[in-house]
Amino acid sequence: MRHPAQAVAGGFAAAVLAGTLLLLLPVARTGDGGATLTEALFTATSAVCVTGLVIVDTSTHWSGFGEAVILALIQIGGFGIMTMASLLGLLVSRQMGLRSRLTTAAETKSVGIGDVRKVLLGVAKVSLLFEAVTALVLTARFSLAYDEPLADAAYLGLFHAVSAFNNAGFGLYADNLVRFVDDAWICVPIAVSVIAGGLGFPVLFELRRQFRRPSRWSLHTKLTVTVYGILLVLGAVFVTAQEWSNPGTLGQLDAPGRVLAGVFQSVMTRTAGFNSVDVAELREGTLLGTDVLMFIGGGSAGTAGGIKVTTFAVLFFTIYAEVSGDTAVTVFDRRIGSRVQRQALTVALLSVAAVVAATLALVELSKFSTDVVLFEVVSAFATVGLSTGITPDLPTSGQLILVALMFLGRLGPITLVSALALRESSRRYQLPEGRPLIG
Fold it and tell me: Could you give the CA distance from residue 347 to residue 415 in angstroms, rounded to a whole number?
C-alpha cells in the first residue's frame, strides 16, 4: 500500500495541476486571452498551499470565474486534499476503507485510526462555523459602512472569511486590507478567524471540550496555546514599538489605530498573509523580526505554515535542558522523548536549509537586496503571503523557486521526505557510542 504521506503529496500536486489548468482557461481572466502558464501555476500553488503570494492582482487580473477557482483551491488546501477526499467519500458511501483512514490520519495528524471519521466531521463543522460567522460580520460591515450592494458585500465577506480561516491571505483589494487599517469591524473578525485556523484542529477540538479546565489539556494543546499566545503578544509589542513613528506605516494613525494595526500585523505573521500597512515601508529591523515570527508559524494540523510553534517549543526546551545540565527534557511535567526532539531538529534544520538555499539563489537571480529577498523566501516557505512587492518583478526562474518553496512549506519537510522515501527500515542492533567534540 502507498505510504499515506505519498498520497498527501500526490493529492496536493493534483490539486495544483487542476487549478493551473482551470486558471489557464480564457474565461478565468479579465480581458482578452488567457493567463500565462507562470501566472496560473503560481496562483494555483499559492491558493492550494494557502499562502497568498501573488504575481498579478487578484481582483483585476482574474474574472469572477477565476476568483471562484482561487476560492475553491483555498478551501481545498485548508482542509487538506486527502481530508476533503475523505469527507466526500464519507458523505457518499457513509463508510471509509482502511487506506482512506490511514491517508486522512496522515493529513490531520489524528491520534487513532478509529477517530478519523469524527475528526473529519469536526473539521468540517468548525471550518464552516468560523467562516460563516466571519462572513456575516464582514458582509454587514461592507454593506452598512462602505455602501456595497448586498450581493457584492456578501461575496467580499465570504471570500475574505474563507481566506482568513484558511490562513491564505488572498484579498480582493489591490492594497489588500490597507484601506481598512483602523477599522476594527474588518480587522478584528479576520484576525480572530486567522487565530482559530492557525491554532490547529486538534487544539480547537480540545478547547471546545475542556476550555474551562486547562489542567486537563494535553501537552500539545498547552504548548500550542502558550507559545502561540506569547509570540502573538511579543510580536504585537515589537511591531508597534518599531513602527510607532514610521510615517509610512503606523505613524500616520492615532494611538488606537496604531495599536490595532500592530496587533493585526502580529496575528498575520502566524502565516495568514493579510496586511493592513504597506509592508514595503516597514523598517529593516521589523522585516527581520517578522522573518522570525513567520518562520516559526502557527499550530500543527491547522491551516498555518512555518515550522510550527510546537517544534519551536521543543527546540527551546531541549536547549534549556542542555544548558541547565538536565538529563531529560521536561515541559509541563511531561518528558519529551528523544524521537520528538530529533523530529523537531530535523524539521528546523531542513527548513533553514531550504530558506538559505532559496535566498542565495534569488539574490543571484534578481537585483533586490538580501533583506527583502529573505523576507519573500520566508513568506513563501512558511506559507504566509506577506510581501514587500518584489514577487511580480522576480524573473520566471525566481518565481518558480517560490512555487517550489510554497509546496514544500505546505507539506512540511518531514512529510515530503517520507513521501519520497521508498521504504522504511529499522536497525535491529546498536553500534558502540562515540563522543565527537562539539563546539
Answer: 10
- What lies within 8 Å, CB to CB, of 293 at 6+ separation is 231, 235, 266, 269, 270
Residue 11 gets which letter from DSSP?
A: H
Cα four-point dihedral sign 232, 273, 383, 386: negative
CA-closest candidate to residue 267, choices 242, 239, 287: 239
* Residue 46 φ/ψ, nearest 5 degrees: -65, -35
> From CA 245, how far away is CA 281, in angstroms rounded?
12
Owner of C-alpha cell 482568513: 164
Residues 157-191 have pLDDT tens digits of 999 999 999 999 999 999 999 999 999 999 999 99
pTM of the model: 0.89
Other Cβ atoms within 10 Å of 135 Cβ, number? 24
Does an H or E element contain 79, and which?
A: helix 64-79
What does the DSSP assignment read for 86-135? HHHHHHHHS---HHHHHHHHHHHT-S-GGGHHHHHHHHHHHHHHHHHHHH
Provide the Cα torsion 300, 413, 227, 80; round to 10°: -20
What does the DSSP assignment read for 397-429? HHHHHHHHHHHHHHH-HHHHHHHH-S-----SS
In terms of Cα–Cα distance, which of 67, 107, 109, 73 is closest to 87?
107
Q: Which residues contact 319 (CB under 8 A, 6 or more apart)?
A: none
**Average pLDDT per 10 consecutive residues for the chain, totaling 439 residues:** 67 92 95 91 95 93 96 89 52 50 53 60 86 97 96 97 93 93 96 92 84 86 94 96 95 95 94 92 95 92 86 94 90 87 88 96 95 96 94 95 94 62 62 79
Q: Write out the three cell numbers for 11.
A: 493529492
Outline where 200-307 has alpha helix (H): 201-210, 219-243, 255-268, 284-296
